[in-house]
Records
---
Amino acid sequence: MEHSGSRRRERKTPPRGSPGVVGPPCPRPQALQAEPPHGHLVGVIRGLTQSLLGVVVILPASAFSLSLDRPARVLLRRSRPLPPRQDPAMPAPQCASCHEARAALRRPRSGQALCATCFCTAFEAEVLHTVVAGRLLPPGAVVAVGASGGKDSTVLAHVLRELAPRLGISLHLVAVDEGIGGYRDAALAAVRRQAARWELPLTVVAYAELFGGWTMDAVARSTAGSGRSRSCCTFCGVLRRRALEEGARRVAATHVVTGHNADDMAETVLMNFLRGDAGRLARGGGLGSPGEGGALPRCRPLQLASQKEVVLYAHFRRLDYFSEECVYAPEAFRGHARELLKLLEAARPSAVLDLVHSAERLALAPAARPPPPGACSRCGALASRALCQACALLDGLNRGRPRLAIGKGRRGLDEEGPPGGRGSHSRPDPRLRSPSPASRDSSSPLGSDDVGVRGRL
Amino acid sequence: MAAPLSVEVEFGGGAELLFDGVKKHQVTLPGQEEPWDIRNLLVWIKKNLLKERPELFIQGDSVRPGILVLINDADWELLGELDYQLQDQDSILFISTLHGSRMGAGSTW
């Protein structure tokens, strides 16, 4: 007979935080169901009758399993060993899902206390829900996973690999080598280890190869003397998206995924507000770029997961990732947004997701809406001005005027664009795409002769 | 009166860079009048283990926002945070979530 006493136990309703995707309830871990209940019951019954009657009586478990069910389970529960290292003054609560193990964390969004196993299961279920509900990765998709070796892309690749059979997708890791000495080499080593461990194909695309010899170190040297040194991160952001797109095309991918988490999205929203970037605000917070004008659709399956949960997931699953900061990072503007966000989060934990939800619901005043995009005159990519961002930035570098395309609206010497355009720190720009085959120059994906100038230092 | 305690202090996610790159430290906390809690431990760490830039690890009497603290693999939030009383053979893990960018911030506040 099915022993179902445990299921009659009441579930506490966890307190709910801000509304959002909650995901399916956590499935009960297998260990609980695998226990043979009748063996324990026989022992308990035997012990009870012995002490009460002084006679050893062997009773069939089935005779008592119903009537002794409740008290037997209570006895069983008390007789289990306590979890190790309980502080008697402040015991950790039990997992709200399996009621078995000690809780390991409290989820930021719902306030629910979960053990490590249940949390990992819930995390994976939520990513699955994000992908399925948003129809982000249809069956048969060839997915290029942007892999930097860091915590977010490591968790993303791991979770997608777990979910791949259920989703019917295949995965390729694409790593971008920006040419930052001492930093990127170590990170790439981590990616290679992951690719080997997970048996996933890996493609590495290098800036030096794609952008005419311009590594990030070269860009940083070129921009160093021009005032605000943080602008080298501007280049990296724009060029990395282009490189990722190129890598995805090389492996014949149909979709591109990146590991941006909720904190990243919230920082982006803050940055766009702080810079008055109306164009991005109009698009910021969307679940993914559907792929305008030929760009591969890009999405962020982790975007509803808070950074803390990503780190804890990586910890509980013992994932190996690379965790040093980029040598140029202290100069990036995003750091200011991040500090602000951390303070806000301490005061109001749901602020992170609320920011993202607010951005999704933003509607801009008619005067602020960006103009409909056209095509870059040089490479054919989607652009709101004559030159797309990547071409404009590289143009500036090659002319020895690296700040040319950064700041208010200028995209190339001959273009007097409207004010308000900015260099990019923020996350994926759906306007950027690789050029169509027709306009592609064989030596460079940007299709331009003078972008091939090398060693301009 | 607290007896000497032997605990394992571990750093991850980039935080180990502030501690000479050493991730695991087996430490023996000396006996003292007040019982050992996380608050005292942080003071002790700052004095004895932290090699550089304390403002990247400690802010006020707590850790900098963005640094997760796990006590015996459970979030310290569930155990009382700074007030958790340390026990012998406890394992405290500090994971930085700020790596990849801006670990070296320390400027604006």
---
Amino acid sequence: MALKIVKGSIDRMFDKNLQDLVRGIRNHKEDEAKYISICIDEIKSELKQDNIAVKANAVCKLTYLQMLGYDVSWAAFNIVEVMSSSKFTFKRIGYLAASQCFHEGTDVIMLTTNQIRKDLSSPNQYDTGVALTGLSCFVTPDLARDLANDIMTLMSHTKPYIRKKAVLIMYKVFLKYPESLRPAFPRLKEKLEDPDPGVQSAAVNVICELARRNPKNYLSLAPLFFKLMTSSTNNWVLIKIIKLFGALTPLEPRLGKKLIEPLTNLIHSTSAMSLLYECVNTVIAVLISLSSGMPNHSASIQLCVQKLRILIEDSDQNLKYLGLLAMSKILKTHPKSVQSHKDLILQCLDDKDESIRLRALDLLYGMVSKKNLMEIVKKLMLHVDKAEGTTYRDELLTKIIDICSQSNYQYITNFEWYISILVELTRLEGTRHGHLIASQMLDVAIRVKAIRGFAVAQMATLLDNAHLLTGNTQRNGICEVLYAAAWICGEFSEHLEDPKQTLEAMLRPKVATLPGHIQAVYVQNAAKLFATVLRSQESAPEAAQETSQLMIERLPLFVQSANLEVQERASCILQLVKYIQKLQQKDVEVAEEVTALFAGELNPVAPKAQKKVPIPEGLDLDAWINEPPSESESEDEKPKAVFAREEPKHTRSRHTEVDEKELAKRREARKQEQANNPFYIKASPSSQKVYQDAPGVEHIPVVQIDLSVPLKVPGLPLSDQYVKMEEERRQKDKDDKKKKEKKRKREKRGRGRQVDSGPESEEDITPAQQVDIMTEEMPENALPSDDDDKDPNDPHKALDIDLDKPLADSEQLPTRTHRSAEVLKSPGGDGDGETITPEPKKKTRKDKKEKKKVKDKERTRSAEDKKNKKKHKHDPEEEEAKIEEAITLVNAEEAQPTAAADLDFWLTTDAAPSSAQEAVAATIPEVPIEAEPSEVKEVEPEEMKSKHKKKKPKKEKEEMEREKKKKKKRHHHHRSERAETESVQNGTMEEEEEEEEPLPPMSNYGLLAENDYIKMVYDIQGNLQDGSQVVVSIIFQNKTSSVLKSMEFNVLDSLNSKLERPEGASPHDALSVPFQLPPEVSNEARFVFAVQSIVMPQKLKGTLTFIVKTDDSSTHEKLDFKLHFTCTSYLITTPCYSDAYAKLLESGDLKSSSLKLEGVTMPFHHSLARICFHHHFSVVERVDSCASMYSRSIQGHHVCLLVKTADETVSIDAKCDELMLLENVLDEIKQTFSQS
Amino acid sequence: MIKAILIFNNHGKPRLSKFYEHYSEDTEQQIIRETFHLVSKRDENVCNFLEGGILIGGSDNKLIYRHYATLYFVFCVDSSESELGILDLIQVFVETLDKCFENVCELDLIFHVDKVHNILGEMVMGGMVLETNMNEIITQVDSQNKMEKSEAGIAGAPARAVSAVKNMNLPEMPKNINIGDISIKVPNMPSFK
């Protein structure tokens, strides 16, 4: 055997390995393709061998060839073979190859499911790791569905290395199998607080990626992320979270308000540029979302702009680029703050880096104002002249136009200036954007009536100098402007000074070299001009006839055009002019009628107008106009056709005969026509003769103007002049104003008051012309909405899933039957408690699958049944409380609005504490009423007696929280082993009480709410019978001398906690308190709440309504309250024996945390009693100043404490399977102590 | 998300390509070529960001690259990634390669592309950043390599010997294409944890 192995490896020695292949390719540079094809042949034969090492080597080489662009999909099956090798070395090669070339279309992928599943559960963490890495690249919907559950199990793997990979890959699973998102989400959420930073980072990564696409579903996670943001020190995580907040703020402006402060702090404190930059970005997003009416944030804007300026001024091009990028975001909402940095941005235009120049250009777009537009554009024009690359110059050109035309020419005060800028831009050589300039010219001329005169004059000059634009080479781009020029001159010809000259310019033979669509416009507008000229020459018939003659002479040139459009228009107009000429010869007045041809104004039409025409009522575009041909009809026709077969044949032949005859006739007629038509181009020499008569192209002398300085269109005013003119004008305006003001001042001085004239504001700049910018026309009743649909193919659309809804049974992931699925322990599921029993049967895969489905169904059904039974079982305790009818299953969907309520609560921060909150004060000092950490810790014991303590604003509280955390870290003493014992004392505290000081009286009832009529105190206890229920006992105390009756108790359910109401009641119905309260009497009622997750404290808002009945009157009253479900209230005092306790601690499944309480003056046994009483713990054993304690949550979490004391300090080391629950319980313990 | 990671040399020869979305082999080659054209014509002292090419991405995507001696490291990412963060990640990647190959040079990447893939697999998974701590990455890579070696055992020895002999008379083996300026520091960027 050993010999065989050695022999095999000796054989392998001479196989080519990857290095040899690479070397070979490098040595065959000339005939690389040939060499590789030889190698592929070798690989093919290697793959045929049985030795897995040889195969792996071959696959390894294939991976390399794949990178070089060779298709290796033919070896997919061999790759699967190598993947399934038991050796890690080969497995890794296989998975790498698979990740490089497998995709959804690869059919062998379905063979891998079981192999991957095996690898995922391999005892070797690297087998699992390699499988996860590979799977992340080629996961398909099928794989995702089949493996989702296995991967979810791995999310709780003991090794962080596996956990983080499992968490990350879940994103890919969600994408391919969206149904898995909801069941997996609670666990994913848990991982946000994983002790391993890598796992935490992975979870943040996945949730951020999910939230980016469907942010609204993740708003409820904001508090959690907020906590992470203020506690994490990992820059990667921070960046991700901050980016996520940037996506969330637009949806919830209040979130933004909350964020500003911590973000500003980060900006000040961080040294990492990447973090700083992302903070600035998110602050900007916040400011955008708050943009309306938050004047007090100008400091934040200022800070952002300042920091960005530092970035832009940095020598590092990357920072410069990003700075500009972020600056452009601020610009949208706070242009003024950016405008002050104009110098800096203009400077960036000179940067050698094109991407930076482009960014700076983007910024300029938003920075212009009426005041600086001319100046900025002037600068840009200089850059246009200097620019080297055509792409950059084109970019400049479009930017200039964008800048000027933005928001309906808002910033243009002088349109003459703008027209001349456009005309100057036509000098650009080789630009692609002629059409852009043209459309601007058209737009301005059409919409700004006042400018038409000037525009027409400019366009006439352009037409006159058209040769400059078309002169050399095929610079086809810029000649587009002639299209605009011709149209403007034609349409608004009444403004032309010398229409005849323009007409001549438009009919020059050179025009024929222009592109067809421009010629067409030329021809059409020549006709318009002709009409105008005729009108002006009404009194001089000779001149008019001359004009007609000119038209008749020149138009045939266009009739010959190869472009159909030109040809058609030209021949039409030519005929028209000929007719006119005839009339003129008869001395008929024609001008009027010709003008009438072009009467009426052409108004601009909005680009979307067509789309917006509303469908008239009663018109169904999808309806058939005629009856649709029924399918049976065609079948019916067939037999008919059989009977009447001869008939149609005859007719057809007759028809063809007719056709032939007619065709011949038509042909004849056409020939005749063509012969008569002088404009038809014929091959015969006679037709050429016709044209020789007409003045041909050759006869017109073409004057080529040779310019040394090309393209300075003569006679055009330069835009620079306008800048000067404008300045002068403004100065004059100002002077005028000043004079007026002086006058005013003089008048006012009499009254002893002086008014300062502030700096010139935007509004003071009056436009040079009174401009009436016409709006574009829209059809009547146009619908204003813009419907931009999302891409229907977006894979993320499927992930738009509401995650706040509690899980339904049907949503559990498909579980494989032969492995115990303790996976779905997530606090979300209804069927949580039910663990699926292992199924040892082995059958063929196919029917196992089917069976599994059926079983799953059955199981869920039976689980439901059980549950219902349980709920309907009349528990004596419950009966006593008379609320058995209060139990019902609350529909998840109806409870939804309250999820928002939770978030609302978190978001309403600086608001004054509500009455209920204020009321949460300690009447009984020992009562733990606040689960959330608050400032109470700092309060001196003497102050404790004060009845009403106000909550500090949240902000301070958060700082406190952070501080506390720091402290916690410092005092963190990790103790894991506590098994050694000296004396074993089982049982609860009571046994020890006699020998020590008597305990002070204690009560767990905390004040719920109080007003003049009634006082409510409450206590919450876990329900031993049902892991998802807690019982709230409320004592109602009547403080008045009248009877309180019809008390109705109602709370606003949250997703997590719901009041159990009688069956059939809606989730908003109130429960009536089953008794009346005579004067000065108190009574107790119990209410059952269903809770899902118990790891976090909860607050539920509620109201009690009641009627106060006195002898003569009765009044309706109500009292708001806030029920506080502390984590403690989910714990149930459970005794535990020390050996079981030791075993539990040794199991290593528990997460630990610790707490240190200083300044505890009470005796140790009092402290223990306090923890036992208020937090439902039992003492496992106690040795001197050290005690171990135990409690269990209603959902079965173990909570273990090791309490030690030494000179007024009590330190608690704690362990629990749920870290969050533990932290919260510890916080609550801390509060209990701080209150004493 | 990271859409693709490409390494090619100054002549556009691919040294590693990792696409996190599926493209056909031809498209992949086209993308590499296009990216090379975009990146190679840029000066040394301009910013490291490029608005994406046409083939890969679209408007949401950016190319973020670094140029070390003879090699370009290009990451194609979408807007959910922090630009400076990715630059730092590239730096971590290159430094990790430097540690794993002991003074990495282009030849290392040419002959051991599989190892480079394995290292990359510990940093980025399925287009998402997995680990940014260099020590952690190296630890995981090393222990996997150790496993590989122990598996090879005696059986692997002859093959290794032959490979060593083959490498002995290699004229092009001198490490003259060293990435000398590997220690280019990202300005003001404290390394991530």
---
Amino acid sequence: MAHAAQVGLQDATSPIMEELITFHDHALMIIFLICFLVLYALFLTLTTKLTNTNISDAQEMETVWTILPAIILVLIALPSLRILYMTDEVNDPSLTIKSIGHQWYWTYEYTDYGGLIFNSYMLPPLFLEPGDLRLLDVDNRVVLPIEAPIRMMITSQDVLHSWAVPTLGLKTDAIPGRLNQTTFTATRPGVYYGQCSEICGANHSFMPIVLELIPLKIFEMGPVLTL
Amino acid sequence: MLATRVFSLVGKRAISTSVCVRAHESVVKSEDFSLPAYMDRRDHPLPEVAHVKHLSASQKALKEKEKASWSSLSMDEKVESLCFLLHKCGFGEKWLNVAEEGAADLCACKWLSSLPPVYRIKFKESFAEMNRGSNEWKTVVGGAMFFIGFTALVIMWQKHYVYGPLPQSFDKEWVAKQTKRMLDMKVNPIQGLASKWDYEKNEWKK
């Protein structure tokens, strides 16, 4: 989860997110360099004592400032596409969870090895204990094993929602009548938070997602799969 | 008079053009836009028309004198002619023949008061005059600060009369328990919150 007033990305909990953080740093550095260059040029324009405004015939310069941005764009596109295809790699998930969005809660279905279905509502403010995370904590978390590829099937029962967990680099729209799929592998145990990311009505801000990632051995003992 | 000086704090055409003009003495009201016009512009050093269209008698006499051999001009007139023409074109004192001492005195940094009639027929303002700064920035900065201050008053009023109380989770004890819980959960342990906590000594890292 983010701390208050956090602006940057959260630390990665999956390999894809690690790649995304690196890509973000790369793209941001390019952006900063271009912005700095433009601001410098603007500063020069505003403070020059030169007065000739009838400059024309600068074909060499025009060629350079066309080719160079094209090269920069290629340098951004290549890592971007690499990560895009990485997210679609076939990795034989060990577990499939269904996540169904409703107004205004999530339903999770563990149907691989049994029939566990439950709802996940945000804890109302009056039900919070001191130290709880307001607007983030839920009554029933999604318990999952670490270091195992997990497939999430995401859909909605009424309007558009979006299932997002920033630290895993996940955001997938929940669309009524459609099954969207996303996969991830968590590298660290812990509790990870996300919030509904598609406007869905009055309580759109009050239907968070909480994943509890635990070691596989403990998960296999069946704390989740026995009701 | 005082009003005119006040208006110099404003831009050249901010409120009433005529009043601002009288303060700045540089902006000209134009007549017919289809005719070549005189303009004092940094990037247009030699305007299409002279500043003074209708010469007075003394000005006409001066122009006649200029047409004749320049050796008949007095030292003052000759030097002034050359100096201010070069200065208008931006060359300044560099091109002055320092041997002519009288000229050195004339040209040395006193363009404004010493520019002679021949110059003023052709040009309204010298480069130094047209490029001079104004006091407008004081008005802008002052105005911006005033409105920022006013906004602060509005926000104070809102906090007192409009907003409700903050939720419980903003209480100091709650935040402390919440932070402890986040540290126990090892939230962002690589570069974020938990990475700043020393788990052995149970305190924030120095």
